[in-house]
Design brief:
Layout: E1 9-12, E2 24-30, E3 37-42, E4 48-52, E5 56-60
Antiparallel strand pairs: 1-2, 1-5, 2-3, 3-4
């Protein structure tokens, strides 16, 4: 299983609350590495939601310069 990191670009794989499947955004906050929820800022809707990671797909990992937590 991939670890989701800060500033990773993600896509919603299914509808969740006020966001629709296919919406993209970036992770702006992670909790403990064992937590299954991250905070995502969605670009098109300008919504910020706490999203379970099983609703997300990683589109692009953040570079080390952007604050990736995978290192």
């Amino acid at each position: 299983m991939s670890i989701f990191g800060l500033y990773d670009e993600v896509e919603l794989s299914t509808d969740f609350e006020e966001a629709c499947s296919g919406q993209r955004g970036r992770i702006i906050h992670t909790f403990d590495r064992t937590d299954m929820v991250v905070v995502v800022e969605f670009w098109n809707s300008e919504k910020i939601l706490d999203v379970p990671i099983n609703y997300l797909r990683i589109i692009k990992k953040a570079s080390k310069d952007e604050g990736d937590l995978d290192g």
